[in-house]
Structure formats: structure tokens, C-alpha cells
């Protein structure tokens, strides 16, 4: 019995799944790892934890699936989550997690570089990306930067552990390292201008398109993971970006939003557009000949978790009751606005120095009202991203939601109400893992192309319609959210420690 193995390194842990050749989920596994926050806005993980947790999750999934022969393997990870390694692949320091915002100054420096490749990212690199993080290392930890033989994305590290080859995902290279697949490849002159002229030598040795085979699973990894079969390792990429493959192939106008700790938005277009409020368009990042566009909320489900467990103090087991009580309240009438910028804003404001807020509190405010306002604030942030797509000329015809939002009906319904349009929920499945099965199927030769494999493994969805009576109320709430964002930007910058005039 043949099958495909999918591995996803998320923010909180590793997840693995085994899929049959017909797309049936045969087995799954999961294992957590810690995140450390040494300073406000910083977030770090240990690459050794990724491999340990990933191996545990894979063994669980294989055991549940009955130990089938594995034809193909594909990996997805958060990005840019950046590992800094010596010549033997050992970590020299903790990895910088995707949400780490310490490279704000470096991100701003990229905006002044004026390099033509930056037109694919709105004229600058985001604070989360590999290049600003490498700049930060070179400026603040020069000895570590100099000693680093490899500065790579988490997905590239995992592929190396699986195959022994430093083969980078073209998706990550294009979207996070300014790689130009239609031009000169790595922009050495840009790296030089940014003070990291030797960065390309520290990146993976080769760049492999998404879905193309990298090579066979190495003997050491095969033994540790307990894998049998040909097990061709296929080039993967960014977890949320790959999700577009798991909604039926990514036709123009389809937008996938993976709703979890953060919210990631992705779509593909046939012809490039260049609005300054979104990230991209990235040439050939997912499928050759098309352009990938992305947006994101840095904090989404994490805001709801912090509100329920951290601020209100409910144990995780009691959060369901809090959600139910908050859902019984009418929208907006509580008089509260929550700004979701707990770790800054990625799209459309591109401001890592924004901060979260709860406005309108009185001594009569209740925990249920605060939680409902937090859900609404996250949904307002989602609309702000979707509006930036449509305002920039990017078609948004169908919206597919997946991830942790399926476990919070209030968050799901509020998102549809705030957007004022139906949304399609992919429930009971992990789109990133399913997308990895698509890659594994295509790269191992089971299907002729990514599009064919994607159509074959399309998931089932349920449609959530907006409640007419709530749409108008949220229209006013969204206007207040935008006004509150503008009114608090100055104090957010001062509280974040940003220098005036920077």
C-alpha cells in the first residue's frame, strides 16, 4: 500500500499526516515545541526541537496509518523562521521565529535600497523576512554572523536533515530572500548594499521549484523516522502559501486564509499588479508562470488566546463557555474596540511598531464583552487585508478559511459578518498537510503537474453566510477600528521604543 507523508512545522509544534494515493487521511501525529520571548517583539525556537518534534509526529502518523510504503515526502514550515548554523548544521544560536520583529530598522533600510527586485515586494522587505534578520545578525551579533556557514529557512533546514542536501525552496527564496527566478537569481548587489554581501554563500546551494523532487530520503533519516518505500523528498515551502494548492488548484480569484496563531492570506494572479499595501507579486513562487500575492495579520488566534487565558484568566478547558457566552451578546453594542496589532501589522500598514489596545473599557465591562470585542477586532483586521487586495486590483471572488478558526464558531461567523460575504470553511482537515500531500504526489510522479494533483485532492467545504442584521453594525465598528488605528499610531510607536522620525 503506497502513501504520501506530509510534515508541517507550525508556530507551536510539528504535525504530520499520511495520505493514501486517493487523498484519504490514513494517520496523523503531532508534537509540540517551545517558543521563547527574550524581549518584547522577539521570538525564538531551537532547530533541534523542530527535528525532535517532527520525528515524533511522523512516527505517530506512520503507526496510525499501519506503516505503509511512502512514495513521496514534502515539508512546509512557518516563514521566515531563520536558522543560524555552523558547517555541520548545528545551531549557533536560537532560530529567529517568523513573528520576531527585532529587525525593524533593517526592514526600513531595505526601503531605501531602490533595487529593481524590490518591486516584487512593494519596494521593501518585511521585518519578518530572512534578509532583514540576516542584516540584524550582522549588525548586532557580528561574531555569530561571521561564524555562520548557513543562514537558512526552517524548511531548508528540514530538507537538509531529510536528504543531506542544501536545496532551498524556490517559494521561500522568492518570497523571503529577494531571489529573482526570471532574472539573476540571488541579488548579490542588493545584499552588498545592505551590508551582507556574503549572504548568498550562506544560503542553500541550489534553489528547487515547489513540487520538484530534491532527492531520496537519506539513510539516517529513514532509520530514525521508520520510513519504508522510495520516499522521494519533494521541495516544499511556506505553510500558508502552500494552502492554495489544497483548495482545488488556486484559480484566479480564490483566496486562501489560514487562520491560526496568525492569519495568512494568499492568492495567485496571471498578470502582475503592484499595490504598495500587499506583499508581492512574486514571480513563479508557487507555480511557474503565475504570480503569488500574500497578506497577513501577525496576531490573530494568538490575540484570542491571550484575551481568554491571559487577560481574562480562564483555563483553556473553560474557553468554550466563554465563547458561547460572548456569542450571545449583540455585536458592537458593548462599546469596545480591540486593535489586533499585538506584534505589529504586516498588511496593509507594514508597521511592526503598532501595538494592541482595548479601547472603551468601563467598570461595567464584562469578560464576555472584552472577548467578543477581541474576536471582532481580529475580524476587522481580516477585512483590512481583504480590502487591501481588492483596492489593489486583486480579484477576491471566493474566500477559503482553514485552521484553528474551525474550532471557534464565534470567530468564524464574525469573520463572515465583518467581510459581508460568504466564506468557505475547510473543516476537519489541515490544508497545509493536504497541500504537502499534493506536492508529494506530483513530485514522486503520481500526477503530471501540481494543478492535476491539486484538483485530485480538493477538500470538502461548508459555506458560512453572513447574518444580514450584523453586517451593518460591523460596518460602523470597522470604521471605528480604522479611526482608532490612526489615532493610536503615534503612541504605539513611542511605546514600542521606535525613535522619533525613524
From TrEMBL:
<comment type="similarity">
    <text>Belongs to the FGGY kinase family.</text>
</comment>
<dbReference type="GO" id="GO:0016301">
    <property type="term" value="F:kinase activity"/>
</dbReference>
<protein>
    <submittedName>
        <fullName>FGGY family carbohydrate kinase</fullName>
    </submittedName>
</protein>
<feature type="domain" description="Carbohydrate kinase FGGY N-terminal">
    <location>
        <begin position="4"/>
        <end position="245"/>
    </location>
</feature>
<keyword id="KW-0547">Nucleotide-binding</keyword>
<dbReference type="InterPro" id="IPR018483">
    <property type="entry name" value="Carb_kinase_FGGY_CS"/>
</dbReference>
<keyword id="KW-0418">Kinase</keyword>
<dbReference type="InterPro" id="IPR043129">
    <property type="entry name" value="ATPase_NBD"/>
</dbReference>
<dbReference type="Pfam" id="PF02782">
    <property type="entry name" value="FGGY_C"/>
</dbReference>
<keyword id="KW-0119">Carbohydrate metabolism</keyword>
<keyword id="KW-0067">ATP-binding</keyword>
<dbReference type="InterPro" id="IPR000577">
    <property type="entry name" value="Carb_kinase_FGGY"/>
</dbReference>
<keyword id="KW-0054">Arabinose catabolism</keyword>
<dbReference type="InterPro" id="IPR018484">
    <property type="entry name" value="FGGY_N"/>
</dbReference>
<feature type="domain" description="Carbohydrate kinase FGGY C-terminal">
    <location>
        <begin position="256"/>
        <end position="432"/>
    </location>
</feature>
<keyword id="KW-0808">Transferase</keyword>
<dbReference type="InterPro" id="IPR005929">
    <property type="entry name" value="Ribulokinase"/>
</dbReference>
<dbReference type="Pfam" id="PF00370">
    <property type="entry name" value="FGGY_N"/>
</dbReference>
<dbReference type="InterPro" id="IPR018485">
    <property type="entry name" value="FGGY_C"/>
</dbReference>
Amino acid at each position: 500500500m503506497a502513501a504520501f507523508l506530509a510534515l508541517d512545522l507550525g508556530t507551536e509544534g510539528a504535525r504530520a499526516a499520511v495520505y493514501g494515493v486517493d487523498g484519504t487521511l490514513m494517520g496523523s501525529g503531532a508534537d509540540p515545541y517551545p517558543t521563547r520571548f527574550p524581549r518584547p517583539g522577539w521570538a525564538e525556537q531551537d532547530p533541534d526541537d523542530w527535528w525532535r518534534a517532527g520525528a515524533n509526529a511522523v512516527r505517530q502518523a506512520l503507526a496510525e496509518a499501519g506503516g505503509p510504503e511512502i512514495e513521496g515526502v514534502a515539508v512546509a514550515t512557518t516563514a521566515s523562521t531563520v536558522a543560524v548554523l555552523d558547517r555541520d548544521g548545528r545551531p549557533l544560536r536560537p532560530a529567529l521565529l517568523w513573528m520576531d520583529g527585532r529587525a525593524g530598522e533593517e526592514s526600513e533600510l531595505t526601503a531605501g535600497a531602490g533595487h529593481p527586485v524590490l518591486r516584487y515586494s512593494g519596494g521593501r522587505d518585511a521585518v519578518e523576512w530572512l534578509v532583514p534578520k540576516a542584516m540584524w545578525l550582522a549588525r548586532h551579533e557580528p561574531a555569530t554572523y561571521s561564524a555562520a556557514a548557513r543562514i537558512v529557512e526552517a524548511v531548508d533546514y528540514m530538507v537538509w536533515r531529510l536528504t543531506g542536501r542544501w536545496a532551498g525552496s524556490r517559494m521561500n527564496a522568492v518570497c523571503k530572500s529577494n531571489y529573482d527566478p526570471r532574472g539573476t537569481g540571488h541579488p548579490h548587489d542588493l545584499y552588498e548594499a545592505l551590508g551582507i554581501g556574503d549572504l548568498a554563500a550562506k544560503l542553500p546551494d541550489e534553489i528547487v521549484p515547489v513540487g520538484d523532487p530534491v532527492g531520496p530520503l537519506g539513510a539516517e533519516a529513514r532509520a530514525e523516522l521508520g520510513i519504508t518505500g522510495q520516499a522521494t523528498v519533494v521541495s516544499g515551502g511556506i505553510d500558508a502559501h502552500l494552502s492554495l494548492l489544497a483548495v482545488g488548484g488556486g484559480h484566479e480569484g480564490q483566496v486562501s486564509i489560514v487562520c491560526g496563531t496568525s492569519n495568512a492570506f494568499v492568492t495567485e494572479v496571471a498578470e502582475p499588479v503592484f499595490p504598495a499595501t500587499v506583499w508581492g507579486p512574486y514571480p513563479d513562487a508557487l507555480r511557474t508562470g503565475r504570480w503569488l500575492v500574500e497578506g497577513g495579520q501577525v496576531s490573530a488566534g494568538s490575540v484570542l488566546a491571550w484575551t481568554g487565558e491571559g487577560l481574562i484568566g480562564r483555563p483553556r478547558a473553560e474557553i468554550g463557555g466563554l465563547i458561547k457566552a460572548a456569542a450571545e451578546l449583540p455585536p458592537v453594542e458593548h462599546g469596545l474596540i480591540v486593535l489586533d496589532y499585538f506584534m505589529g501589522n504586516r498588511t496593509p500598514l507594514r508597521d511592526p511598531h503598532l501595538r494592541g489596545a482595548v479601547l472603551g473599557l468601563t467598570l461595567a465591562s464584562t469578560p464576555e464583552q472584552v472577548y467578543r470585542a477581541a474576536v471582532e477586532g481580529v475580524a476587522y483586521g481580516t477585512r483590512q487585508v481583504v480590502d487591501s487586495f481588492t483596492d489593489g486590483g486583486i480579484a477576491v471572488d471566493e474566500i477559503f478559511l482553514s485552521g484553528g478558526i474551525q474550532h471557534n464558531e464565534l470567530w468564524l461567523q464574525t469573520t463572515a459578518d465583518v467581510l459581508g460575504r460568504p466564506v468557505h470553511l475547510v473543516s476537519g482537515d489541515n490544508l497545509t498537510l493536504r497541500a504537502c500531500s499534493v506536492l508529494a504526489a506530483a513530485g514522486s510522479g503520481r500526477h503530471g503537474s501540481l494543478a492535476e494533483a491539486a484538483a485530485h485532492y480538493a477538500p470538502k467545504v461548508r459555506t458560512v453566510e453572513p447574518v444580514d442584521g450584523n453586517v451593518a453594525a460591523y460596518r460602523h465598528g470597522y470604521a471605528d477600528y480604522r479611526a482608532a488605528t490612526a489615532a493610536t499610531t503615534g503612541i504605539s510607536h513611542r511605546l514600542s521604543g521606535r525613535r522619533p522620525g525613524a
